[in-house]
Amino acid sequence: MEELIKLLDNHLTLLSTDFQEDTIYLLVESTLNEVSCPFCGTLSSRVHSRYLREFQDLPLQNRKTIIRLHNRKFFCDNPNCTHRTFAEPFTFIRPKSKKTNRLIEEIITLSKSMSSISAEKYLRKNVVRVGKSTICELLKKGR
């Protein structure tokens, strides 16, 4: 499982794995000591707080996958920056998103070949918890 987490980001480490019915829960955290502020680029190592971020990823072993990330907020020490704190950014998921970028691409690819209702049924059964409105929204955005 550790290798699969490294595919998302080389700086993630797997803390625990929990199998429940048709879902795998992976608890991960970043190993970086310093992170660049996404607003000004200043490096920061001062942690403001921590929170648990939960999102869906591609299925593993025919099970839905939920990743729980111990995310950190950092102080930005640049007095000219527009933000005092920022959440640790990751390239594999957009801010505030509940699905990884690669999962979103998979949803869009599958949904283009069938109706949104059929896509919802197939995806809910085999891949991910997703609704018809989410599928339509993703198709409209054309990500």
TrEMBL record:
InterPro entries: Transpos_ISL3, Transposase_Znf. Residues 35-78 form the Transposase IS204/IS1001/IS1096/IS1165 zinc-finger domain. This is Transposase family protein. The lineage of its organism: Bacteria, Bacillati, Bacillota, Clostridia, Eubacteriales.
